Amino acid sequence: MLPLGSFQVGLKKALPLSAYARPFVAQIQQLKDGFGLALTVLFMFGFIWGIVKIWSGANAIAKGDPDGKAGIVAGVIIAAAASIMAALFAIFGLEDAVIKPRF
């Protein structure tokens, strides 16, 4: 009789099911690390883009364009998007559902 959590292939006793789960968990960790690196690149690009939007909005205000204020607000939102989303996840108790970027 095989212990619970094992299975049999032919007439040989196979490894317990937990032995097959270890490589899968390692692959999930590598996938999470890859997504964390991709998020880092995305957040860096968004931060730089937000700074450029703020700067262009300030230049538009200096030239007398009333739409410059909207550019500044959009730039702040774009540059702070990562912090805004982290705060929202923390407020609603979803910290464990977040993949953290690797800086």
Question: Mind explaining what this structure looks like?
Answer:
With 103 residues, this protein is mostly helical. It has a domain at 43-103. It is 67% helix and 9% strand. Strands 1-2 form a two-stranded antiparallel sheet. A hairpin with a 2-residue loop joins strand 1 (6-9) and strand 2 (12-16). Helix 1 runs antiparallel to helix 2 (68-79). It is elongated, with a radius of gyration of 25 Å. The N and C termini lie far apart (51 Å).
Task: Give a quick precis of the structure.
This protein has 103 residues and is mostly helical. It has helices at residues 17-62, 68-79, 81-91; strands spanning 6-9, 12-16. It has a domain at 43-103.
How would you write the strand order of the largest sheet?
1-2
Radius of gyration: 25 Å
How many helices does DSSP assign?
3
How many distinct beta strands?
2
Largest sheet: 2 strands, antiparallel
Observed structural traits:
103 residues; mainly alpha; two-stranded antiparallel sheet; 3 helices
SSE topology sketch:
Blueprint: E1 6-9, E2 12-16, H1 17-62, H2 68-79, H3 81-91
Helix pairs in contact: 1-2
